[in-house]
Amino acid sequence: MCPLREQCCGKTTKFKKIDDSIHKEHYDRMHQKLNENPAYTKKMVRVRSKPLNLLSERSSTLPT
């Protein structure tokens, strides 16, 4: 049983309901960072939207 169950669900409930993640503070910090710095946001969008061509690059360097 989860050690946080009573904190999240209460003692007598028959279903689970989690309002916030245990990592909410991290999400909030990242959201704040993205909202405060448009240049950083633009850079991260560009970095994360690039396709990963690792498989095709790796296969072209393998000996045949």
In words, what does this structure look like?
The protein has helices at residues 5-9, 24-36, 38-49, 54-61. The chain is mainly alpha-helical and 64 residues long. The longest helix is centred in the middle third of the chain and has 13 residues, at 24-36.
Distance, first to last CA: 52 Å
Low-confidence stretches: none
Radius of gyration: 21 Å
* Tally of helical runs: 4
Structural class: mainly alpha
**Overall morphology:** elongated
Number of strands: 0
Estimate the mean pLDDT confidence: 77
Main beta sheet? none
Please, how many domains?
1
Question: What is the secondary structure topology, with strand pairs?
Answer:
Layout: H1 5-9, H2 24-36, H3 38-49, H4 54-61
Structural features:
mainly alpha, 64 residues, 59% helix, 4 helices, single chain
Compact summary:
This protein has 64 residues and is mostly helical.
